[in-house]
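Quick one, tokens below:
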């Protein structure tokens, strides 16, 4: 993942803190994808986003989707070996948060590059003006160690060139923070993760409020509450959240409280109140003893 020049920066970057260094590695993964995984994989598998320690990739070819299942363990090893740490735990096929580009009928159209690939190709052509260099120098922290000061200055220059290149290609500020994001995106990865966490908590709230709602009804409710994220409301996501809510309701259950018992049964069976009978409640509670989900996050 590191070039010869970057190798000299590693120890200094680590000295700036673990979060800074890991963030650097996450960006380096996208910039150096081809050199990490090789031309064969890079020509058919593209990284789309990195959420915590899960890398999502895009694969257009059906045969390569099958091939990916045999190669993904090796790709994980290549990435972690290049990073010299456990940067990712797994790789999944998934879509980016941006809308897919419309298909083109032009067979002569060049291969569409990802935003990060476009930046990586153009970055060597980007230079800083004297005024920009002076601003970097004036804003540099006072560091006594000459070598570390030089490393920090070069890192600041590289970051400035990168931001300048991104702005040239239409990148803009994240709607929540100051990080630059590609033209077709609204939020940076960190802010998107926070939004998705809020989205999952909102789904959990809906299930607690009206525990018998079906997936389709929950999705319609989320269209009203958080319409910009409704495309992330997958059936398996709602099922996972419902399982966690059921576990939480069962964990805090007071068996003397009939309202709590009914809420638990409705959430577990997705039954409306008018379908609850004593027999249904008894059978469900017996079944829950053996089928109660464990683990999961708290919402």
């Amino acid at each position: 993942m590191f070039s010869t020049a970057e190798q000299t920066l590693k120890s200094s970057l680590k000295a700036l803190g673990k979060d800074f260094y890991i963030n650097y590695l996450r960006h380096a993964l996208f910039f150096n994808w081809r050199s990490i995984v090789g031309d064969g994989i890079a020509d058919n598998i593209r990284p789309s986003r990195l959420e915590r320690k899960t890398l999502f990739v895009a694969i257009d070819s059906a045969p390569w989707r099958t091939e990916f299942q045999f190669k993904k363990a090796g790709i994980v090893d290549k990435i972690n070996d290049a990073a010299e740490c456990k940067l990712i735990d797994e790789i999944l096929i998934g879509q980016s948060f941006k809308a897919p580009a419309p298909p083109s009928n032009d067979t002569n159209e060049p291969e569409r590059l990802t935003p990060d690939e476009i930046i990586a190709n153009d970055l060597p052509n980007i230079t800083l003006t004297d005024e920009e260099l002076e601003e970097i120098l004036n804003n540099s922290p006072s560091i006594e160690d000459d070598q570390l000061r030089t490393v920090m200055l070069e890192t600041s220059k590289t970051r400035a060139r990168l931001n300048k290149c991104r702005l040239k290609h239409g990148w803009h500020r994240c709607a929540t923070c100051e990080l630059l994001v590609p033209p077709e995106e609204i939020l940076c990865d960190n802010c998107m993760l926070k939004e998705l966490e809020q989205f999952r908590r909102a789904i959990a709230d809906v299930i607690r409020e009206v525990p018998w709602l079906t997936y389709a009804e929950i999705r319609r409710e989320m269209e009203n509450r958080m319409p910009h994220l409704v495309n992330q409301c997958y059936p398996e996501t709602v099922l996972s959240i419902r399982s966690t809510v059921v576990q939480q309701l069962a964990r805090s259950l007071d068996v003397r409280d009939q309202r709590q018992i009914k809420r638990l049964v409705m959430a577990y069976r997705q039954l409306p109140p008018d379908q609850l009978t004593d027999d249904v409640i008894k059978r469900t509670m017996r079944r829950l003893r053996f089928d109660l989900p464990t683990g999961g996050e708290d919402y």
